[in-house]
């Protein structure tokens, strides 16, 4: 059991590192988009969710759970990007 817990802890660390990269992409997107309204893109959100559902299905992990996690991740990413967009233009 200790080895399994160590593996899980390492996976959590790896996931945080990957999420850091994702949020760096959100910051880059905030720099690129000239209009604040471009930050929320419902078509892209739907595309990402469909991609995640397919990836989860292919991986044999619970699709509804992964979709719910990604819904929260996307909404958090949008909020983060909006915050960064505002900060970059208020400076």
Structure report:
Keywords: Coiled coil, Isomerase. Residues 32-59 form a coiled coil. It is an enzyme of class 5 (isomerase). The chain has one domain (2-90): Chorismate mutase (Chorismate Mutase Domain, subunit A). Helix content is 85%, strand content 0%. It is built from 3 helices and no strands. It has helices at residues 2-32, 42-59, 63-90. The N and C termini lie far apart (51 Å).
Task: Record the SSE blueprint.
Blueprint: H1 2-32, H2 42-59, H3 63-90
Helix pairs in contact: 1-3, 2-3
Largest sheet: none
* Total strands: 0
**CATH hierarchy, class:** Mainly Alpha
Helix fraction, binned, reads over 70%
How many distinct domains? 1
**CATH-assigned fold name:** Chorismate Mutase Domain, subunit A
CATH architecture: Up-down Bundle
What spatial form do the alpha-carbon principal axes imply? flat
Contiguous runs where pLDDT drops below 50 for at least 5 residues: none
- CA radius of gyration is 16 Å
Write the element-wise H/E pattern from the N-terminal end onward: HHH
SS summary, helix count: 3
Question: CATH homologous superfamily?
Answer: Chorismate mutase
Mean pLDDT: 97
Distance between the termini: 51 Å
The percentage of residues in β strands lies in: under 5%
Look at the helices and sheets and give the structural class.
mainly alpha
EC number: 5.4.99.5
Keywords: Coiled coil, Isomerase
Domain Chorismate mutase: 1-85
Coiled coil: 32-59
């Amino acid at each position: 059991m200790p080895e399994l817990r160590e593996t899980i802890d390492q996976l959590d660390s790896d996931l945080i590192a990957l999420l850091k990269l994702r949020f760096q992409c959100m910051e880059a997107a905030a720099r690129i988009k000239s209009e604040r309204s471009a930050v929320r893109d419902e078509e892209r959100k739907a595309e990402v969710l469909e991609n995640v559902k397919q990836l989860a299905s292919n991986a044999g992990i619970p699709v509804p759970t992964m979709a719910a996690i990604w819904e929260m991740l996307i909404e958090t990413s949008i909020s983060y990007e909006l915050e960064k967009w505002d900060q970059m233009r208020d400076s």
